[in-house]
Amino acid sequence: MLGVLLLAFSLVTIVHAELCRPDAQNAFKVRLSIKTALGDNAYSWDASEEYLFKAMVAFAMRRYSSKETTQLSNVLLCNMTERVSFWFVVTDSSRNVTTVPGSEVEAAIRMNRNRINGAFLLTDNTLQFLKISSTLSPPIEPNVPVWLIVFSVVAGLTVVGIAFLVVSGIWRRKKNNESVETEDLEDKYDTSVTIENGIPCDILDLKTGQINGVYTADDERFTPL
Amino acid sequence: MEKSRPLWDNPLQFVFACISYAVGLGNVWRFPYLCQMYGGGGFLIPYIIMLIVEGMPLLYLELAVGQQMRQGSIGAWKIISPYLSGVGIASVVVSFFLSMYYNVINAWAFWYLFHSFQDPLPWASCPLNSNRTGYDEECAKTTSTQYFWYRKTLNISSSIEENGNIQWEQAVCLILAWLVVYLCILRGTESTGKVVYITASLPYFVLLIYLIRGLTLHGAVNGLIYMFTPKLEQLANPKAWINAATQIFFSLGLGFGSLIAFASYNEPNNNCERHAIIVSLINSTTSIFASIVTFSIYGFKATFNYESCINKVILMLTNVFDLEEGSLTADNLDSMKNYLTSTYPNEYAELLPQVKNCSLEAELDTAVQGTGLAFIVYSEAIKNMEVSQLYSVLYFIMLLTLGIGSMLGNTAAILTPLTDSKFLSIHLPKEVISGIVCFINCIVGLVFTLEAGNYWFDIFNDYAATLSLLLIVLVETIAVCYVYGLRRFEKDLHLMIGHKPNWYWKIMWAFASPVLIVSLFIFYLTDYIRTGTLQYQAWDATEGQLVTKDYPTYALAVIGLLVAASTMCIPLTALIIFIMKRLKRNVDAEPWVMHLP
């Protein structure tokens, strides 16, 4: 009895060792960077964390295939290093000693990546499943590009400024023209009736001029030597 | 009665206008590059010597000519000698070429400014590829800032032959840039005089903020030490002296006619000697100030990249050898590498090509100048700062004010001669002439918004102004000293500012500056001839880096045309005037001939 048990146990271990080893078929390498992500709040990786990992992978498989067949014992971890990195496979209990195809595992992990990350307080960069590419989230794009809004504001201000200057220039020029015109009109009125010292000019004989007696009386304009 | 010439409201506006024009993008992006290439702190020696020998005298000369003749460049040289009005025309042509391509830089600055209002900044990370499993291919090969510049901003094609379509986003930014310039020059000195208060002072404000921020950045000290350690052996390199002379020359904006235009709006008794010294000193001081800022930013960027490189190596080694997290640090990296080589020789040997040797020196040595520095390096440094949006907005507003300040000078150089000419100013008001000039420049400038536009931009940047300006300034100096006469010029200056120029100015004008310009001219010509075919840097999207290519023949033809268009104006106009005078003399002489028995 004991011998049979021992045999079975050793068989299982050997089988496990064969199923889960680096670069095995359908095996994936996982790498965690806990200190990078959490700094001082980093937790240490121990057997309980491994248990949680197995639980999360089993959860992911259950969600993906929606048949409640994957058990904790189906997830095998091996080759734990100090880095914290290890390999894992998911075995299929319905078919003995085989592993679930890698594509299924990959799809399951991808579907539930956020949940798995959240359980470990890590991100896609710090909890890496090598060979499983993550879907990067695109940056948030607003409906109207921001630059167009700022551009429209600046362009609007500039156009308003130009229009204001041009219009005020035209208005100023018109006012100048009007005042020049009114000056011309006043000149015209003046020439029609030019008054000089109360005497209308047309009466004066412009050819001969008006002689001012005060000055012409004085013949001696130069002082004699 | 003749309309009186518009004047600056006060001499301060004139000084600000000159500073705003002279202090431009070249101070921010060319001088730091030259400092780095030619011996760090030691470069200041040839720079200051050239400033004294060449910069100040030539600046004083141009300001004095403008203030004395009270006309734009064409009118001013016509007064000195009718045969020399070609010099003025050449200045206008060169200014025209300059304003065509210079405003494109303002368009790019607007583009980056508008994109600075996002969180995170769009050049901070690569966009995702189509099935969202990784980053875009081109972006992964190069940095995200280079990708944003070459792909998102320029959408550059792989060579100058492939013209592509007009990028509507760039075209729209260019139109906006021209509208802003039009707004500033619309009313002539009335509007320009107010705008230059802002365009002259705002850059200093921003540079000061950046100086404080830059000096407090991690790793800034590395950049400053690198820049200021003088490598005096570079002084023996003639290229250092030539580049110092060229930098002073172009930085002050001599020969474009802008300084003559600005000075023509001065009061006749304005002390232009004092202003010339002030403007040239401020220009050089700003260059040095800007290079301190640039090098602290450089140091920060280089240190950041160096530390990321080290971290990448650490991560790779940790992952491959499954070591405990945190066991490899920057300090023990070398000893751990030795340990790993001895313990796992085979795996380490396989890994060796990927283990990069990170070097801070190599990062600092990557010298960049021109648009690369302003848009790629600075945006890369900014994205790593905290509150990056604020610094980004400040920086691009500074670039804009620098650029628009220089554009005001460029357009003044074109518009002043046009508005001075009786023919145009009778038929069209000033606003319409400015509008037409801006419109023509804008339409031609759309060429630079094509996919290959940046290659055409480089052609204009490298060849439109360089040789022609040297020739123009040479002819100017010789004209004033020998055609107009140095004594006559001295007397005019005595009338204007109250004292004669002392022996220093006279020696520089008559001998030192012409000799220097001739030697620069000879150097450039021999350099062009020696290098044979001209080449340019093209962006290779598949490799994610720049490659050197030869210019096709039609591009070489355009280069030749650019240089010829401005330089040929001088002899051609002299010839035409000579012929016209001959004809007029023959026509006038005939009645006399007939009277002779």
Automatic annotation (TrEMBL), chain A:
Bilayer-crossing regions: 144-167
Domain of life: Eukaryota
Annotated localization: Cell membrane
GO CC annotation, single: plasma membrane
A GO BP entry: positive regulation of amino acid transport
InterPro entries (alphabetical): Collectrin (IPR042944), Collectrin_dom (IPR031588)
Keyword vocabulary terms for this entry: Cell membrane, Glycoprotein, Membrane, Phosphoprotein, Signal, Transmembrane, Transmembrane helix
Membrane topology classification: Single-pass type I membrane protein
Domain Collectrin-like: 24-225
Signal peptide start and end residues: 1-17
Listed name of the protein: Collectrin-like domain-containing protein
Organism of this sequence: Pelusios castaneus
Automatic annotation (TrEMBL), chain B:
Membrane topology of this protein: Multi-pass membrane protein
UniProt-annotated binding residues for Na(+): 22-23, 27, 251, 283, 402, 406
Keyword Membrane: yes
Top-level division of the source organism's lineage: Eukaryota
Record's subcellular location: Membrane
Signal peptide stretch: none
Coiled coil segments of this chain: none
Keywords from the named record: Glycoprotein, Membrane, Metal-binding, Sodium, Symport, Transmembrane, Transmembrane helix, Transport
One cellular component (GO) term of this entry: apical plasma membrane
Principal localisation: membrane
Family: Belongs to the sodium:neurotransmitter symporter (SNF) (TC 2.A.22) family.
Protein name per its UniProtKB record: Transporter
